[in-house]
Please model this.
Amino acid sequence: MVTTVRSLGLGGVSGYEVTVECMLSGGLPAFDIVGLPDAAVKESRERVRSAVKNCGAQFPVSRITVNLAPARVRKEGTVYDLPILLGLMAAAGEIRALPEDAAFLGELSLTGTLRPVTGVLPMAMFAARRGIRQLYVPTANAAEATLADGLTVFGVEDVTELVAHLRGERHLSPAPRWEPSAQCRPMPDLADVMGQENVKRALEIAAAGGHNVLLIGSPGSGKSMLARRLPSILPDMTRAEALETTEVYSVAGMTDPAYPLVDTRPFRSPHHTASPVSLSGGGSVPRPGEISLAHNGILFLDELPEFDKSALETLRQPLEDGQVTITRATGSLTLPSRFMLVCAMNPCRCGWYGHPSGRCRCSPQQVEQYMRRISGPLLDRIDMHVEVPSVEYEAMRRKEQPESSAQVRTRVNAAREVQKRRFEGTSVTCNAYMTPPMIGQYCQLDAAGEKLMQGAFDRLGLTGRSHDRILRMARTIADLDGAESIGAQHLAEAIQYRSSNLLK
Model:
């Protein structure tokens, strides 16, 4: 007799259905698992054997064959422990036939307790799309699974209570749908930064349009401090954005069981020793890297020239496409990576080039060599090149309170609402992601603007990519100003963010 149990698997950040087929047959007792299982799946035999005995059932003394279909896809992890156990018990007549619209997943302990697994949200969302209406998961994963619409989720503490439920002896209560609380999460505020009004203006533009930023300045000028306060002025995440980001964090095993939804924009700041794989993702079992963990948020690279050049070059394709494709011998995997890139760097090795104190001792050749660590194609993909001057003493000692993040965020939200209406019905969410046809439609220039743009193109040696990025920035500045069309003043401000003297 062959019994089938519906379960789920994970490929990247997408779920897929796995059918667990169990057959008991005559012959010498054996327990085989087929269907391209990895070592963790094969080890489930011992966990299942012990859990069956500890829940008071009789482990079948016969030849056991378990097939995980589709057999062409490699199965990884401990998520199949529970469906394998239920398939065995159903084949042995210990429980009645399982509901056809139910799926099961979870890791077993030797005592029969269910332990949480990773990637529950993308699997739950796939299950809802495939017509599965009941999902049984470990209790610690129940809140996360309820984020998927159209599912009745049951949190299971141990096998004993699940078996009693399936036998009709005792009923499990569905897990209540988890809803985010209105709790206020404190973040660093722009009001903490004294002076640097020009840089704050640049960050406001970047937040309003989703533009990439490079901050260049001497040590102690406040580059890192300003960058770490950028999340406080970003607009709230939509429900769709929060679910997309949570899927990535779920696969990486970084969700909080008590608060499973990632509803604040991520801020990822990897160390400059990070490898290409840690940034882009991958490994023998491909997992999301830093650029995917920063999806819908910020990737902050401090001390940019100190990063390995090969690691930095992995950013080029994701910055253009909003996704990263990882190819390995076992297949290809595409992960989302739509993020704001914020970088900070010193102007030279010693850090004091161009400082009023004149303490820099680097030669022009050394400065040029330091700058050459960052490739031109990567710099071309960064919209705004902002010089951060040293803070003046008067700015540090002034008594008036600087503008708070809440005040700046109000203007950013207003500009984002304009963009939301502009791009309604498309996949574009902000000006930074406008396609070339959209640029032609929404970034038209008057005669003065055309003359200004042509002069900048010839003088600065702009590329086609930098030309389009300037127009996108100008559109954002006009949105902040409440203007219907791009004026010469908006374009001039945008151009200045591509004309840093330190990068020439």
